[in-house]
Amino acid sequence: MVRKYKFGAPFETEAVTADLPLCSEPCPYGTVDTASGFSFTCTLGARDVVYGLGEAVRGINKRGYEYVSFATDDGNHVEDKRSLYGAHNFVVVAGTPSFGVFVDCPARLTFDIGYTRQDTLHIYSECADLYLYIIDGGTPYDIVRQFRGIIGRSYIPPKFAFGYGQSRWGYKTPEDFRTVLKEHRNTHVPLDMLYMDIDYMQDYKDFTVNGENFPDFPAFVAEMQRQHIHLVPIIDAGVKVEDGYPVYEEGVEKGYFCHNADGSLFTPAVWPGWTHFPDVLDPEARAWFGGQYRVLLDAGIDGFWNDMNEPAIFYSKQGLADLAETYREALPEGEDMALLRVAQQGAWLAGSEKDYARFYHNVGGQMVRHDTVHNLYGYNMTRAAAEAFARLRPQQRILLFSRSSYIGMHRYGGIWTGDNRSWWSHILLNLQMLPSLNMCGFLYVGADIGGFGSDTTRDLLLRWLELAVFVPLMRNHSGTGIRRQEFYQFEQPEDLRHVIRVRYRLLPYLYSEYMKAALGGDMLFKPLAFVYPDDPFAPQVEDQLMLGGEVMIAPVYTQNAAGRYVYLPEEMDFVKFLPDGTIAEQWLPQGHHYVEIALNEVAMFIRKGRCIPLVDAAEYVDALDLGTMQYLGDKTAAYELYDDDGITPVAE
Ligand code: MIG
């Protein structure tokens, strides 16, 4: 059962699509206090597990730390980070009984999950204008499915988006892209997507292409398409301030950018230099901004990634003015002190709270201060694009994912989890975020394989790929200036080829399970305890996941390991894709096992009484041949395959 409560005058985030009556009875599972701000408090049983929060650090069980929903551009995803790029305010307390809490609040919100007191869940915000949803009835998994039922259907990407993609901040010229493609095709390493980072643009201007490097961009897009490659350009939130740039000029003229309290335009600096933020919370401005994607669609583009939409701010004009003021004040104290204070304040300029409280959105004629709706920006930037695609390309699915997000955005696009590092711990973090994201409706998700920051190593990349083989968004991406990490940069590239090819062998299965999850309001990745609710050990498993209805994954995520310990809640078929193309299968009984998994093997487990389809690998998704299908697992079982043309939008 879902109970909806209203406090104050909430901002309509449109996270929830179901039309629910307001509940007037007291909240059954916790104490709500709105005397000053909002506060929800409840007691946690000694063994209760708390699931949820989507994109956040730490484990599948979120208990024992404090998390803050405030979309933040922070590329240092260490354990004590309270905020990442998204704000996903849904948790499920698995106890007796279990219940779920969704706080639909677009301002800063804190989840103290047994942090201050180990037996207390405390959710609070300065903002007291919000909707609260309390969900109960059944297991944690049942509660998640009820929640998914009220927030609308998850985004469905085109089928090609389940292929492998190569990305790098630094690819600039057509030659750069051709080289990557050639390396893949020459050695038959599958590839469906090449991602274009900010360097394809003219001076970092959205919806422009560098004319010197790409004198005929549509021809280049067509050249790539002939080789079955989809180019996926990045779009940033900030629109460059530059006379003669039509997006800037039209946005100013029509009043579509965010403004200061005095009505002047808010001017943050991001990659293009001075920019304005399109006011995507205003439906008219949103439609206008979405319409800008058309120039790239018309060039043949069929996929995009939306970046910097927390929105990230390097500094603002007003922030610089404050800095100058600090400098002026500090000068009499002597040069050293002045420099110190200037340096300190300079470091605080990026993503500064002050800036987020300086600018306004126009929502139905009302001035809404940004920090009160901060977490909705990436959501609505992505919604702008998706709504435009529905208008401009009604017969076609377009690939779309975003860095920042809020629940509700899952209907419009996927997400990637931002600037991770080439750290072993980030393979595990990648795995642990998957079920949490799925709980919040985000199914088309993935992390930068190999790590965005820091120098990667061959073994790290291999192990990461061996997880990513199962993850919908499979993209190798890295930052500029660090070690290159395309598969062909390493010795014995045939091992990397083998792993990537396994993805394509499994692709019909993964697509089928993805579609079933999207159409059925289900999770693709589940914690073990969701599937085995009576298993006493399952709630403690933090490094294995159930995938779809048939599979369990348990990747190796430590360096120099020849295998790992794994827990089987029931008898399972231990499957290994060996580098020579053959498959080893071994039925293992319920219990704890040590399994050997070499660096160039992909391992997975198939549940008792289940089987999965498998096809021959191909170099791109369209070349997969379902005629080659065979089955793995229990050969007496049947598997119901979902398939479609992968491009026609699926009617709701
Ligand atoms: O400030 O476009 O997360 O994937 O390569 C960095 C350059 C901006 C951040 C994204 C990353 C991308 C990078 N961007």
Automatic annotation (TrEMBL):
PANTHER family: ALPHA-GLUCOSIDASE (PTHR22762), HETEROGLYCAN GLUCOSIDASE 1 (PTHR22762:SF120). Belongs to the glycosyl hydrolase 31 family. InterPro entries: Gal_mutarotase_sf_dom, GH, Glyco_hydro_31_AS, Glyco_hydro_31_C, Glyco_hydro_31_N_dom, Glyco_hydro_31_TIM. PROSITE patterns: GLYCOSYL_HYDROL_F31_1 (PS00129). This is Alpha-glucosidase. One of its GO terms (biological process) is carbohydrate metabolic process. Residues 521-612 form the Glycosyl hydrolase family 31 C-terminal domain. Residues 155-512 form the Glycoside hydrolase family 31 TIM barrel domain. Pfam families: Gal_mutarotas_2 (PF13802), Glyco_hydro_31_2nd (PF01055), Glyco_hydro_31_3rd (PF21365). GO terms for molecular function: carbohydrate binding; hydrolase activity, hydrolyzing O-glycosyl compounds. Keywords: Glycosidase, Hydrolase. SUPFAM superfamilies: (Trans)glycosidases (SSF51445), Galactose mutarotase-like (SSF74650), Glycosyl hydrolase domain (SSF51011).
